[in-house]
């Protein structure tokens, strides 16, 4: 499934060698030249870009690379996610600009996109602390469409609202399906990493009529563990984590165990470790998300009590709400490693190569 989706994304965004699937295939040379000129003026005049990047982007236009220029594609980031978005643009050799945001005194948002937009646009923004961000995405997507953008892709390394995938009591909104379907209506493609899929197998189940690509950070995490630890024991804190812990352990060539978790409230979990000797082991707790940090902290405390020599944590999405880091310190967690899906002091590896590979195909 992934490779089919990935190759679609590639076709959508790339017209390398004038592929017949290019969204530009019906444009005339004149139209293309106008778009190139418009884009180059935009890139050259964009003061948000460092001079060397402006030059590099212009080089892409003028060094005989017009035909290969990723098809009139611009990558737009948002102010709080500018660094990872720019890094992705660099990997893809695409021009980059940051959408301007303004917050009015009453809390409403104003968004401002570049005045001229190409035929294909990638918006890159992680959706932690999502409520305002979702409104700003809606405003951006509609503005882009009104400006004539034909292919609109969302790269959301962290995809929000995926955990509420069932109504636990009558009347509760099933946020996962609602938010996913809404994004699917706005975007032609959505690319994310390790979305929290528990009761469904694939993102496409909740994102109908769009090209939903769900990537996994498994291999990046395995490589990180190989470089930072020796013979670690990987620990999944709950049954949901088995899917990614087992894959990471296989890539890294190490053992793993899976604990059981009962969630008592937002801030309270009860963890039970499986039987087995843990004395002297270096344990790495692996999870997709750290939110309050209580899942990691409770697991770390038990591992320490069972005699583990060191306990580290590795997560894809470092949400770290409230006093999560303090919780982990108190539980004697030594190192925390996370991806840059959410900018945080624990970021230890970049998702840009993984995302870029999926987009380029
Ligand atoms: C849920 O099962 C997820 O995989 C994480 O374990 C959970 O979101 C972590 O939440 P918290 O940090 O609040 O315990």
Descriptors:
361 residues, alpha/beta, Rossmann fold, 2 domains, 6-stranded parallel β-sheet, 11 helices, 22% strand, binds ribose-5-phosphate
Task: Give a description of the structure.
- By secondary structure, this protein is of the alpha/beta class.
- The protein has two domains: 2-215, Rossmann fold; 218-349, Rossmann fold, CATH 3.40.50.2020.
- The chain is 36% helix and 22% strand.
- The strands form four sheets. The chain has a six-stranded parallel beta sheet with strand order 2-1-5-6-7-8, sandwiched between helices. A six-stranded parallel beta sheet has the order 10-9-13-14-15-16, sandwiched between helices.
- α8 (242-252) links the parallel β9 and β10 (255-258).
- α9 runs parallel beside α10.
- The longest helix has 17 residues, at 29-45.
- Bound molecules: ribose-5-phosphate.
- Residues 196, 237-238, 240-241, 269, 287-295 line the site of ribose-5-phosphate.
